[in-house]
Amino acid sequence: MDDGNSPVALLELKHVRCLVAIVDTGSFTDAAREHGLSQAAVSRTLAGLESILGTRLLHRTSRSVSPTAAGVQVLARARVLLNGAEELVREATTGHTRLRIGHAWSAFGRHTTEFQRRWHGQQPETDLRLIRHNTSTGGLAEGLCDLAVIRAPIDLKPWAHVQIGREARYAALASDDPWARRRTIRLADISGRTLAIDRRTGTTTLDLWPEEDQPSVEYTHDIDDWLAAIASGRCIGLTPQATAAQYRRDGITYRPLRDAEPVPVHFIWRAHSPHPATHAAIALASDLYR
Predict the structure, then answer these.
(1) Could you give the angle at the alpha carbon of 223 between the alpha carbons of 222 and 225, nearest 5°?
(2) pTM for the full predicted model
(3) Which strand ranges, in their side-by-side order, compose the sheet holding 126-132?
(4) Domain that residue 50 falls in
(5) CATH assignment at residue 244
(6) I need a surface site. Which of 123, 186, 248, 268 has the fewest CB within 10 A?
(7) Domain holding 19: CATH number?
(8) Consecutive 10-residue runs of the chain (290 residues): their mean pLDDT?
């Protein structure tokens, strides 16, 4: 039981809200303006949070503000706390809940629309939001969602998880690439090309090829950067079927890759605080993938 003087007892939502506002706006001045406070009040609130936690949370210069190593960890937890508080208030005032499903590139690919329609019919009391966030956990570690669809090869041990399906791999090509006239692409053919790879959230690694036959690589930052590199003709890409379904663009053609293992699709969530609708989402997604 807290005695009133412990850090937990002293911590208030205004402290974590202040930290998030400073990082998201990029300055104390903008954070103060966003919340209708003085810059001095924002500085005092942050100082109070750092005093409660006993650690420095932000690097501050005359031009920029960035989290310290401890600040990165606290920021992730702060977002979870704020989202939880907002959800609590919303549920208490409306009697409805909201389920936020995060993803880095694609939600459920060709099943996305059907998932949304069935969810609305089967779970009308729970508002569904699909959130794209370009991190390895699709926004889960950042506190932006309740569960996430993951295809990239990440360490699943920190999370509760279940595989909901598998997706075939496709090659993405500029539409005027000679290979765009092929019906399928072989993995071995790609060793002589330049491959666009997103190191942070992509599903493709050079381990798909023997070390002596690996293609050259151009690293990209997100799905839009990846698509632009391919449309230019200087790169090709490999991606799960979900990308081909959700990102049909002028200038890009997708062709099946006929000799590569499918990509596993997982749901991940926080084991200690699962959303009440988690199992309903798993059941629906698994049914669609079957």
Answers:
(1) 65
(2) 0.69
(3) 126-132, 97-103, 147-150, 263-269, 160-167
(4) 7-77
(5) 3.40.190.10
(6) 248
(7) 1.10.10.10
(8) 61 90 91 90 92 91 87 89 80 72 93 96 92 91 92 90 95 96 94 91 90 92 91 95 91 94 95 90 95
